[in-house]
Amino acid sequence: MTVAENTFENLRLELRRGCLTLAVLAQLKQEHYGYTLRKELAERGLEIDESTLYPLLRRLETQGLLASQWREEDKRNKRFYRLSSDGEQILDRLLDEWNNINASVSRILESPNTENEPNAEAK
Amino acid sequence: MELLDRYLQAVRKYLPLRRQDDIIAELRANMESQIEDRESELDRPLTQGELDDFLRKMGHPMVVASRYQPQQYLIGPTMFPMYLYVLRLSLLWAFIVCMVIAAVVTPLTEGTGNAVVAAVFRTPAILIQTAAWITLVFAAFEFARTRYPNLCPQIEGLNKNWNPSTLPPLEKDSLRHGKSRSFPQAVAEIIFSALFLGWLLLIPHYPFLLLGPGVVLLKTSPYQLAPVWWTFFGWMVALGIMQIVAKCIDLARGAWERPSTIQHIAFKVVGLIPTLVLLAAPGHIYVSLKDSAIDHAQAGKNLAEVNNAIHLGFSVICAIVVLQLAFDIGKLVTEAYRKRESAQ
Prior knowledge:
CATH topology of chain A: Arc Repressor Mutant, subunit A
Number of strands of chain B: 2
Strand content of chain B: under 5%
Number of helices of chain A: 5
Structural class of chain B: mainly alpha
Structural class of chain A: alpha+beta
Number of strands of chain A: 3
Number of domains of chain B: 3
CATH architecture of chain A: Orthogonal Bundle
Number of domains of chain A: 1
Oligomer: heterodimer
Helix content of chain A: 55-70%
Radius of gyration of chain A: 19 Å
Helix content of chain B: over 70%
Strand content of chain A: 5-15%
């Protein structure tokens, strides 16, 4: 892997990390266990590794954003997760933040290039 | 499913004890569901190779288990800048203390060259121990801070009590690169250097220029200077001439404003030679008796002590000059590195 690719990969992972948390919280408005959650996210275009998703669910639960319970389904015990009331509030605030950032980045990208040049005012 | 059991058993070994069963049960449920899904898609059980691929895609058991651990640092990003600052400061002071002990305390207490060399060679071990202790203390504090956040003070004091008006004043460029000289200053330096050299050359013929009225003692004293002082004197004269020549060249090139750091260091290195010549004097003899047959009974007893004291004095001077030289070279290397980095 070249230095540029390595840098890109690090930045991509950094960017994805927060987005994945947001997506998982949003998806867990509806109850899921690990595997079905992963499938749902993948169907909506967000692939996520098992080894990333399952520990993430644990962390979010430890932080009080998710509630979980063991329940039998299809003759197998599974741990089902759902957004907690604290999680709902945090999700709303995170979504506001996400929308603001998204809108700002869009405005920056849509603005004419000349405005971004350092000497634009002098010209 | 024996392979899945083996995989989960391997993951379990790296999990935190308290949550092993819970995490393994959840992982098993998720993985079995995934395998079942895949099997119903294929309408047949997974082959050994497909199961291998599935587990390989899950990741190495140690990596999978590590994701369930809280993020672990020996020293985290909040503490690290403070750690680095304390480490650098402590190493610098440890180095200075070691050098003072080697150059001043050891010669005064033990008085042998071997003891000084041994003290110098002890320095790396002391520096490593200092670094290890500081790292250990910070790592322990980091551990306590992350495990028991309520019991440990939060690291916000630096930010809370910080006041921009307490920042140090801007460093002047001249301070970093040496003071600039005017043309008359450069000429005056050459004139005074030449006068100093003339004075130095006259001393052997007119010792009162150095000793003043004390020259009488030189005549009445039973001691005389050893031949090594002539070699020392020769080097001092050569050094004086070299400095005058270098200053004249600078003046001719129009480069008198800023003395070159490399030239400054080169002169310090050459300047060490006369001191080294004295340190290497045969038998550490700097003064001897004018007439050993007559004076030995009276002054011979103190001769060894006087020679030892002179040798000790020059050892200390040499150590100080070497330290200064090391500091100057360190500054030069840092500056060169800074320039190279900013040029890139």
